[in-house]
Amino acid sequence: MPALPPLIKPSSLKPGATIGVIAPSKWSPPDDLAAGKAVLEAAGYRVIIGATNAPLDTPFAGLPQQRAKELHAFFADPTIDAIFCARGGYSAFKVVEHLDFELISAHPKIFIGFSDIIHLLHAITAKTGLITFHGPMLYTFRDGVELRSFDHMTGVLSGAVLATELSSYPGTQVLRSGTGSGPLWGGNLSILMSLMGTARQLQTEGRLLFIEDVHEPLHKLETMLQQLRASGLLSGITGLMVGEMTDIPEEPLPFGYGLREVILSACDGLDIPIIMGSPIGHGDTILTLPMGLNTRLEAAPDHASLHFLESPVK
Question: In 11-140, which ranges are continuous DSSP H helix?
Fold first, then answer.
């Protein structure tokens, strides 16, 4: 499987930095934007809201070419230090085919988002080597600051946080003990599965995989994980972090088993550390994870931690 290109580290997020906010998927209601902007400004950052955030008659934030054009403009603008996505949603996959990867690699800077934004994180890191970040968006702070998310995000983006005690988050469970290291890779499970059979298919060999999802019933989560197993994409991973599977609808008839058993069945025969329930994804708290960075997962029966083997920023 193709290896990642040599990593490019963006400059760290410094006090008073200018943050540009773009909408590569859906646009956000003005009140949500204002609330998220206020959280960043209260922390001392300057915030520029891009034109793609303007309300439209469709849920999408303009044509894919328009969204790509603004992304390029924000990367090229020397006055913008970091780029945050306003929210996820749908249709970022259409933006990828319009990206100028040479322009992006020539102007490396922090780029952060999750959910549908995974399309852009994967494409940018895989094509250029630029470390991107799976983490909060303005939408995350629409109800005000969520301190654990905000502090972890600013700590990772500034280079101050290199280790995270996953066990300090109440939902974390260790399903299988062990230690695994490799480039950190993953994201929303449904989106990753939508790329199967394409040129942008998930690459997993030698990587530390993380997944999460929202609004997916247990039978579909099981089907997707078994598809990953059958395709061989789980056989080469060095560890698995299953984040929050949020708002799982009830099945018409009970399965008789739950998510824990679904995960262990898909990973049967793999000698790797496996955890579930850490705040990765669509929950109230979300950790910030550097895409492509060499990372170590340590899991013991009563403890789990994540260690970045180098700083994700310079």
Answer: 30-42, 64-76, 92-96, 101-106, 118-128
Which residues are identified as catalytic? 115, 212, 282
The answer to whether the CB of 138 falls within 8 A of the CB of 261 is no
Q: Is residue 10 part of a domain?
A: no
Regarding whether 245 and 190 lie in a shared domain, the answer is: yes
DSSP three-state, residue 138: helix
How many residues are listed for the chain in this entry? 314
pLDDT in tens, 39-87: 999 999 999 999 999 888 888 889 999 999 999 999 999 999 999 999 9
Strands 208-214 and 294-300: unpaired
| Angle, alpha carbons 182-188-194 (nearest 5°) | 105
- How far apart CA 228 and CA 213 sit, in angstroms, is 15
Least confident of 200-204, 211-215, 286-290: 200-204
